[in-house]
Amino acid sequence: MWKQDGNRSLELTNENGAIVRFVLDAAPRDPHFEILATPDGRNTVWVAPPDHVWHYGMWFSWKFINGVNFWETNPKTGLQQGRNEILDTVIESRPDAASATIRYRELSYPNPDDPAVLEDTVVIRIERPADGRGTQVTWSITTKALADVELDHSPARGTRRP
Questions:
Q1: Which of 75, 77, 91, 145 is the most buried (most CB within 10 A)?
Q2: Residues with Cβ < 8 Å from 128, sequence gap 6 or more?
Q3: Are strands 83-93 and 99-109 parallel, antiparallel or unpaired?
Q4: What is the CA radius of gyration of the chain?
């Protein structure tokens, strides 16, 4: 059975409790799965573990946009350096709990007083696989630069930037 909290969250439950929960919240967290459970109810994701408090279960985030860190949060404030804004959220679920679709746009602002520089259009489809067990997630992101943008990442351990 699907439970929806407006355009803020979507949860799928079965006889073992919640097996999927997706939360759309850009402040302080990015949209993310809080729960992705096995058919017997064991959650496979962990939101904000003590050693990586900026990890939000299963989610997507750019690391650096124009040199600003969108991935990690400040341990004192719990906020990212950059700011995201979630727009145009649509959540559709089938009454038979066979599938649901979440759509939204996310704008990224490296500097709060400046216009957005990046727009992600996200479509997440949650459905039961053909064998009827578990949950299958398809996550699609289309990214559009709204200004000059440099996307970057942390170098892998033991390597240096050129």
A1: 91
A2: 97, 98, 99, 134, 135, 136
A3: antiparallel
A4: 17
The CA-to-CA distance between both ends of the chain, in Å, stands at 52
**Are the C-beta atoms of 12 and 97 separated by less than 8 Å?**
yes
Which pTM was predicted?
0.85
Chain segment 93-115, per-residue pLDDT in tens: 988 878 999 999 999 999 878 99
Amino acid at site 59: W
Kindly tell me the burial class for residue 84, based on how many C-beta atoms sit within 10 Å of its own C-beta (0-12, 13-18, 19 or more).
buried
Specify which residues 47 forms β-bridges with. Answer: 56
